[in-house]
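User:
Note these tokens:
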Amino acid sequence: MKPKTSGDYLEDRGKVIDKMRAMLDEAALAGRDLTAEEIEKYEALERKQEALEKQARLMDNQDELEYEVSQPWNPIINRRSLLNESNPHTDKPKSIVPATEVFSEATKAPQPTPGVTLGGILRAMAGADTTAVIQNALSIGADPAGGYTVPTALLAQLVDALRAKSVCNAAGCQTVVLDTKQTNVARLDTDPVAAWRAEQSLVAESDPTFGNIQFNAESLAVLVKVSFELLQDSINVEEALMNAFAQSLALTLDQAALNGTGLANEPLGIVNTPGIKTVDMGINGAALANYNPMIDSYYELANANAGNVTAAVMAPRTQMEFAKLVDSTGQPLQRPSTIRDLPFLSTTTMPITETHGTANNASSIIVGDFSQLWIGIRQRLRIEVLREKFMDNLQVGFIAHLRADVALAHPQSFCHVQGVVPV
């Protein structure tokens, strides 16, 4: 008999999921919850589909191993992670997701059960009217402490929504899937160096230098308050709740990635990472008069072999002052060709109250190859509901806990322009 492939296991899993959906649809059409017998059967099917998915992944890993063994060794990696990034031969889930790709697709996240959304789960947790499908999903993810662990499929949707609102993602950062609290990622810092040689002479030895990036997933929590009336009556409350969580988490992750101190459980951000390049506007800072600070940052990055510069991130005030620059005739000052197409991205997470010499209203600009900024996220999200705390105002609170961390694959790929003061 022909051995089963990963595709065969996934096909069998799809059939099991179809049976699960049929059970939920039947109960929903009848306007009832699953019976005790149906729940037992449903949970057995759930265990079966998880086992089939695991077997499919094992087969994928075996196929990939056989594929890699058959390939010649290629030492030209150039600072790339040694984590496997989705081999086209197996199309396995990616561990590192570029900014241009959809997280849920790249990580091969399962499709959510039809009719189940994160917003619907939140409404049900607060006691609002719900459906049998949502109620069953809630019962499966509930934990003894009264919280709810969000399924991978719904978490992937939230991560995609978060990334869409993140300025770091717009700048080109990569998202790393963290499987444990502490995750080590190998990287190749320097390539082997070739050397000219005389005929029949020895080949000069040159070893590559390997480094290590360590992620320590820290707890990131957000509280969202909603009125009972809104939960019961609003036609778009589910979308609004998703956007509220995504916006808050995105802003907090951006702040940590750009300016994190590395203290009090906050990740270490770009501007505080040792080894980045700097351009100083002067002892007491200076206002922007031209694009020279940006050209200077390009020079610093070029000297460090930083690669392609993908974006410049700054405060809205700084972006506005660049837009107001004029030449001697009063016409808008044209960007030099070097930075003509460089995205100037603004975010309120870049402060305008920094101290620089005697100035206390300074700000910064971060210029660099943001593909070297890695944001690690664990595929686990827990939500708790607070009913009593805000009852006086007829509100309910939701607390979401996400584990994440930030790391720079190559600090020299970033330049910190510091001491930008207003005109």
